[in-house]
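Input.
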Amino acid sequence: MPEQPAPPTSDTQDTAAPHGSPAATVTATPAARRTGLLLVLILGGLTATPPLAMDMYLPSLPEVTRSLHAPAATVQLTLTACLAGMALGQLVVGPMSDRWGRRRPLLTGLAVYVVATALCALAPDVGTLVAFRLVQGLAGAAGIVIARAVVRDLYDGVAMARFFSTLMLVSGAAPIVAPLIGGQILRVTDWRGVFVVLTVVGAVLAALVWAKLPETLPVADRHGGGAAGAVRAMRALLADLPFTGYMLAGGFAFAALFAYISASPYVIQLIYGASPQTFSLLFGLNSVGLVITGQVNGKVLVGRVSLDKVLGAGLVVTVLAATALLLMATGALGPVGLAPVAAALFVLMSAMGFTLPNAQSLALLRTRHSAGSASALLGTSSFLVGAVASPLVGVAGERTAVPMAIVQLAGTLVALACFVGMCRPWAARGNTRAGTEGAEH
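Output.
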């Protein structure tokens, strides 16, 4: 098995430091930097599984409808099944990784993901495709939940927050390139070819994990107990008010992101008359903004400013941007064109780079021995809240942006309220993990 990876991506590496306090630094060797880069790429690839599995497939939906002679609403269930599988699978895989280590559940999940994706390419009818997509989502959840747990195993404090921000550079690029790749694949093959490419990508990722990602959870830190033990661990986590606050803050902020992804094609193109090319440009620009703020968060702010302060500022900015969008959507500011709406969406999405990684970091700082279960709760809550938010943006039809703005404002307000009311960032906590550490043993 390969040696334990060193965790740097820059010339100096921070040691553990709670709540954004400056950390000591040690010099990283070139070999360690290369190992750290490989770790970023592997874990980034694992966290990019959802947008790849979802977004590469989007351009082929009309062709699937024609090819399988199925109603469009039924074909949409292939997306719902994959999303539901990714949400529920994390609740299973996370506790498994706390009991048996990270490698075994991760490699098993990746193997099943590769097989299920290959079977999607061979599906003879839409019902079979929905079933295989559900299995694909369930298995793909292993990469999402265990990637976060591995980061928690290897990093603490400032270093962990920086690594999560670095991961956004990889995983944040996936929604930008995935639909473009899917569209190019359809130029040379049909929708089944998209799943063939996803199968190859999954197989390559599984090979990299097998060869280059060692076990990161020591045997001494694992715990048994089966399903009952997993339930006890999750109950202890949810009983810790700050952990639950960070989890809900990140989840409801994620709802605003899902609302944007679901509604922006209609808002930008049908309401404000932008061309598909202009929409693609704006969508890509917003994704780039999110990636850039994530890097500013990790490279500049973390270690100099408290994680709670950065998270709080990010949530306030999202609330202000969502408020501006609602005022424009309802006509309270008079007739507005595409530019102001696009600017508000850019601010809202960019602020996620300050919000999402810090919410995850602060939640995971509350635990170590149940990092898999904690990661499962974080991921599942975000996916479920996002899945609920997505259909709400269309309740009033495709010709109004008001539902999107309402969902975004409601989500960001609830996120801010959970952060302030449950995390109580002004309260001094000498040890971030004190709330759950005792309950995990």
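The mean pLDDT is 82.
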